[in-house]
Predict the structure.
Amino acid sequence: MMMLQHGSTQLLCLTASSGVPLFTRGASKQLPFSVIGSLNGVHMFGAGHGVVLSSCETEGGGKVVWRVFQDSMMLIVVSGGGQDGAGDSKEDEVRLQRLLENVWSCMVLVLGQDELTNVRNVERLKRDLRSCFSLIDQLLEDRQEGILGNLTHCADSLLPPNPTLLQEALDGFTQAADSEFGCLIVHGRIAAATEKWWRLAPPEVVLLSALIRSLSASGSASCDYPVFLPQGSPTVAHRLLRFQLLPGADVCVLCGPTPSLHSAESGMVGRFWTPLVETLRDCLAVGEHSLPRSVSLRPDVLALLLINRETRRSVSCVRTSTNRPLGDPPLPSKARCWEILKLFYIFSTTRYFNQEETLCVSPEERAQRANTDDFVLGFSHQPLQCYLVTEECKSYGLQTPQHQLFLLAPLSVPTFALRTVATQTLSDIVGATGF
Amino acid sequence: MATANARKCIDTNVCGGKTEEDGVEMHGCDCESTSSFNSSDYSDDLEPEWLDDIQKNGELFYLELSEGEEEAALANANQGVATNHVRFSEKEAEILTEQNKNQRCASRTKGEPTLKRLARILRRKRRPSQRKPGAKDGGKENSALSSAPASILKNQPGQRQAVTVQQLKEVCVYLNPKRLAGSSAPLCEGGGLLEALLGVVHRASWSRGLGDPPEVRQEDRLTVHGLIPNSPAIKCGQILIGDVLVAVDDVDVSSENIERVLSCIPGPTQVRLLLETLAPADDSRAEHTSSVRKTKASPPVSQLVRLLWGEDTAELQMSIAHVPHIVMFLSLKLDSASPQEEEEILYQYPASEASGQLKGVRGIFLTLCDMLENVTGGRILSSSLLLGKQLVHVGYWKESNNLLVIGLPAERVPLLCLQTVVGDVVRTLKVMYGSLDRAFCQADHAPRLDHFFCLFFQQLIQPSRLRDGSSAPPTDVSGTLFLDGLPAVRWLTLPPEIKMEVDTVLSDFESSDFGEMSEDFFGLRRLYVILGSCLFYKSYLIANHLPKEDLLDVCLYCQHYCLLPLASEQRVGQLVIWREVFPQQRASTNNPGYSQPQGRHFLLIVGLRHFMQCVLLEAGGCASAALGSPGPDCVYVDQVKATLLQLEVLQAGVEERLNAPPAPCLSCADWFLPAARDRLDSLASSSPVFSKLAGAVRGSSGGSRGRSLFGERARRSSPQRSQSDSGSEGQMDAGTSLAPGLSPHSTPDSGRKLGGRRDSLGSGGSEGSGGSGGLFKIPRMKHPNPFFLGTLKKTLTERETEEMYNTMKLTSGAENTLFHYVVMESVQGIFIAPTHREEAQLSGSIHPQLIRNFHHCCLSIRAAFQQSLPARGRRAADRPQGWGLGPVKEHGVLFQCKPENWTDQRKPAPTMTYWVIGRMLLEPVPQEFYVCFHDSVAEVPVEMAFRLSFGLAL
């Protein structure tokens, strides 16, 4: 007898001061209002007594995480947990914390901070918030395979076979559009971006990518969308212009009042991008592997996630293996590989590798996150690498000053060889692409 | 009253008898007479010392330190011999009268009955630190004393010749009026609060008789005539006999108003006393007094022992008052008809400000517990809250209609192990009281629970403070959390012949075949059946005849009361614990076809020196049923004591095992950093055997080889694993036959000559001398083929060869790279780890850090194992999506460490990398391994290490 199904996640949003429910998303069956009221009530009660409730865990991996943003908006996420208590509780909490941050940023992105912090008309706010739903749902479901940015806060990138051509075209196009912020997105990942684009805060880059993905999923050839940058300009809106170059390849610029969508579409897109159609097709062919064919991965790498810690970019791929020797245990499916990769990333970063992105978030968030990462601080020596052998596959993670690499290998690879595989993979990719 | 008077009597007796002698001579006399006394002597005509400590419900917790402890305490207090002695002397007088009556009686036969009664009265009052005087030290102290006469007894005639100057001094003491109410001792008639609360004895009538200095003669001056043992006054160590109490917290006091002033102290607080003291005029005296103060401040017994003695815990409690922590037992069933304040709180501890804040939000805990079960379908386990800047994890345990809530600071207990900690507390409480309801819902349990949770929080929040005053190494919280959290007891493997003897002695005891206990002897049913017992030596389990679950129950109790470290660090004079317990396995099993006899169970723990035996007894069943709450039975206690005395013969053998070089061999992390090499080189040059050894290494070092990570490919065989290493080189020459000798692990004889410490150092020696240029370069050498033993035997004597094969080394390679390990065997509920002594032998600056880190990492590894446990047994296909990482079999982390305080700016600090790896095996028996070894080990040996550890466990 329970109100929330296993494995489902429900997001509740209320005003922090009065506790008026603004919206709930996720899960087929909405929680009863009494429960929503109690969940909000306990947090408010605690705050009144100088105690800030932050999370809660139940048997079977159920989780509740509370978070108040800007003293105005309360976000609560309730997750039903796995079937039989197999959930990795700590891991789940990090995922939910990250989800709340993303949902808040996404609300700011669409509506701007002013509207969210100075609520004058609750009914109107409720109506306005509907425009965020598609993006929020996308964050909640987290269905899109191969997109890890929501979790890592590193921009999912795709390494094109000939980056310089694309970069030049993009720079030219952005300049012509009277802007400094431009990016080319292929298969939902950033194939090229202007320097200024990379200077945006990593969560913003990730969020803009998510927005562009959801916009391009709508099927329109181009659009003009007002956005607030959660950290860069939370109160002043910019225009995000998006043009579809080929199915799966979009180019965007962030700009001021000019140029108009029409003039940009007619005047500039053709001029800059028509000569590059073949290059773009090559780029599309890279597909979900994110890595150009020039990079030869060892055959015993099932999946990998490589993060550049300085640029906050990541590449990731899962390989569908074809020639498996008979008698070997079955390899995990592609979807499962993505899931394990995510879980292993959270596992390693919560326990061993510190996430230095705390440098670029607000002090308020930093305080909150410092408290969740208490375990890492307990080590007297610096963890460099770690591995995990489970029933399905082997996972290996390593951290250098510049990179973090997480990879999955089949069980047939001997454990002692993992380290060599990992270090070689890292040097191969970095050597071939300069990532 | 009675106590104080009695004490006074003795004081006067002793003093009165020797008024002509000065204090010093009196001491000498006392020491001589006590020196023959032995704490473990147990004569029939004297009742057991613990008899009066038995509580109404039959429980007993009696702990007494041995002379060794007192000596150690004396040794710690470098200069304060005289002071301590003076303090002891007061006690000696008492103890002398109390226990060592034989000699006294020889001179005063008439006094015997009185003395016996007196002794009993005296015993009621606890005198912790001074139960046994430092008898053996008598002579030494005596000489020390005669050179520096005690200044504390200022009103002795001999002292007054010295020119004295009056001085005022301020002393802060901690007073707790609540303790008065709780303690059994009523207010002393004569002394009132001054005596009862502060511990200062003032007798108005004495003032004249003893003759204060003429210029200060006043009837109502509060001269300190004596100090009550164990009182705040004596504990602070700065109030001396002869001082005059002038003011309390700036209020002038005299004998007229002192009672009124003291009665105004509402609760536990610190008060400032202003005392007029007679400072000796000459410099040497002044110096002496200062040293007195200094040494007196350090407690002779550790806080832990004080806590166990049930002394005032408020001070310890106050020192962690700012750390938020709480335990509450809340009722979920609220009678809304009669809403009373805090009605739902059935129990709560402590009452500090930070915990008050947590208590204030108990509504959150109740609501969440109630609501979340319906929302997510599982009971609530934990929540995290921010209290100001501090993160607090709260663990829940719901039982019937009540909820146990434990809040702990996150910096002490990570969320990963919160559940284990809460689970262990709950189990301990259940073992002690049967159920949580029974533990918390009886009003008279409250003080005992306070004590229980005081220990619990102190151990978690300030373990170092508990242990200060003892010689124990600084404890690391992660280590405690990890090792105590394992469902296992630390085991010490013994040589088979000793093990057999120990087992035989235990079995003899357990058979209950001793005269008085046999049914035939009295024609009565026996009182208890001995279900089994287990034996600890210095915190290691050395024999166990209890089923696993019972063993864990017993061990949880011992862990909670810190009995194991106590027995290892301090010599326990005598420990007797008796209480009813509710073993969890016996309470819950309902196996079809067999039911446990419905009896009551009692736990008897007897400790003697380093041995401690825990016996589980059953009443009912085939023994006679227990009625009421029986106290410990002397016969059983004596039998256990006899067993322990019998076992003491084997102590030498066990000690030898503890002193033996570690098997498997261990290395110290510091040896792998170049900074340590210099030290080793100097060591090598200082020891002839060593330098020879090192020379041999240098001589044979042909080339060097960079040893990196997993990249090491060259296979080197060590004698131990050579059987499996069929591909080893077949060629041999003179150099190769020497080769195994280069590693001290293979040449135990050279190591043994140097003693255990050198033996283990040896590996570093060879390692260090081998490394010439690069970080880790070792001589490349060929190794003997195990199948050509013939040549080996030519060069090595037979004994050496044999020993070479007996030494266990888990890692391969010429040098040992194993730093630390923990092997847990969950079927028997034991784990094996290097002994404390082995750890201590590998002293170094980095190694302790490494072990701390190892334990911290193990917490994480074990948490990963635990999380995946419930999922096991399901097939992968059945698993729903989003089910986590899945069952974890093995998990390893590579760490890098740098020496601290690296000052050399030009060169980067050298680094050393090492692995911490944990593996869980389910077949053939469930086991968990945690090992920590240097990165240089080749890959296959990692597997070897795991496989070889099968040979480790029993």
About this structure: The two ends of chain B are 57 Å apart (CA to CA).
